[in-house]
């Protein structure tokens, strides 16, 4: 199911302005990106295969709290194989937020994940775009701690303009995903408010 909606054509221009927030799910191959997407979409574990292009889903997410607010997210889950990573920037253009999924057990590839995360957030068009870093597979005994992941991914060295949140999660059972999306939504709304204020000042 991981490549059922796949396509090799990158998005060449900004997407039409839907009310849904445009969120791109990135990360190395086998980090659990598509598992995250379909857990959010169907609220169940869906067996996936490596994504050869992208998967896309529009999902309404409850924001919790007493107000029972919801937000619509338009997710783009993009393949993480090395040959597909140059296409990432085509999908992040005009993104409201980035979800970067990291395998907490795969310590050997954390450096590679760090390189790709810093590369995509440094692009001029992604300056200031909020990033939710999902520390996936935290349920496994040999997973890295959040402190270790924050240090190894050098999250403190991301641009000062880039708001980020590191969220422990287990995509298979969905643990942590709701909380992570709530944090991402808060960061997106804060950024929109700031951009509106800047426009007024001009």
Automatic annotation (TrEMBL):
Coiled-coil region list: none
Main location per UniProt?
A: membrane
Q: Which PROSITE patterns match?
A: ARF, RAB
As for subcellular location, the record says: Cell membrane; Cytoplasm; Nucleus, Nucleolus
Binding annotation for Mg(2+): 34, 51
The record's keywords, sorted A to Z, are: Cell membrane, Cytoplasm, GTP-binding, Lipoprotein, Magnesium, Membrane, Metal-binding, Myristate, Nucleotide-binding, Nucleus
Residues annotated to bind GTP: 27-34, 80, 136-139
Q: Pfam family example for this protein?
A: Arf
One GO term describing the cellular component: cytoplasm
Does Lipoprotein show up as a keyword for this record?
yes
SMART domains the record matches: ARF, RAB, SAR
One GO MF term on file is: GTP binding
Supply the Gene3D superfamilies for this chain.
P-loop containing nucleotide triphosphate hydrolases (3.40.50.300)
Instruction: Quote the CDD domains the UniProt record gives.
Output: Arl4_Arl7
Matches recorded under NCBIfam families: small_GTP
Instruction: Give the protein's biological function.
Output: Small GTP-binding protein which cycles between an inactive GDP-bound and an active GTP-bound form, and the rate of cycling is regulated by guanine nucleotide exchange factors (GEF) and GTPase-activating proteins (GAP). GTP-binding protein that does not act as an allosteric activator of the cholera toxin catalytic subunit. Recruits CYTH1, CYTH2, CYTH3 and CYTH4 to the plasma membrane in GDP-bound form.
| Family the UniProt entry places it in | Belongs to the small GTPase superfamily. Arf family.
Quaternary structure and partners? Interacts with CYTH2. Interacts with KPNA2; the interaction is direct. Does not interact with ARL4A.
**Per its record, how is this protein called by name?**
ADP-ribosylation factor-like protein 4A
């Amino acid at each position: 199911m991981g490549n059922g909606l796949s396509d090799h054509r990158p998005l060449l221009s900004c997407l039409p302005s839907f009310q849904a927030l445009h969120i791109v799910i990135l990360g190395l191959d086998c980090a659990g990106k598509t598992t995250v997407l379909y857990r959010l979409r169907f609220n169940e574990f869906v067996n996936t295969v490596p994504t050869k292009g992208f998967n896309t889903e529009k999902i309404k997410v409850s924001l919790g709290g007493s107000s029972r607010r919801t937000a619509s997210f338009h997710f783009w889950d993009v393949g993480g194989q090395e040959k597909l990573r140059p296409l990432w920037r085509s999908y992040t253009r005009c993104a409201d937020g980035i979800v970067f999924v990291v395998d907490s057990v795969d310590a050997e590839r954390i450096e590679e994940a760090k390189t790709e995360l810093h590369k995509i957030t440094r692009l001029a068009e992604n300056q200031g775009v909020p990033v939710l870093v999902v520390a996936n597979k935290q349920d496994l005994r040999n997973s890295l701690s959040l402190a270790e992941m924050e240090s190894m991914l050098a999250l403190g060295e991301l641009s000062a303009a880039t708001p980020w949140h590191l969220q422990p999660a287990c995509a298979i059972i969905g643990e942590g995903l709701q909380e992570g999306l709530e944090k991402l939504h808060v960061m997106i709304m804060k950024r929109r408010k700031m951009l509106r204020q800047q426009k007024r000042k001009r």
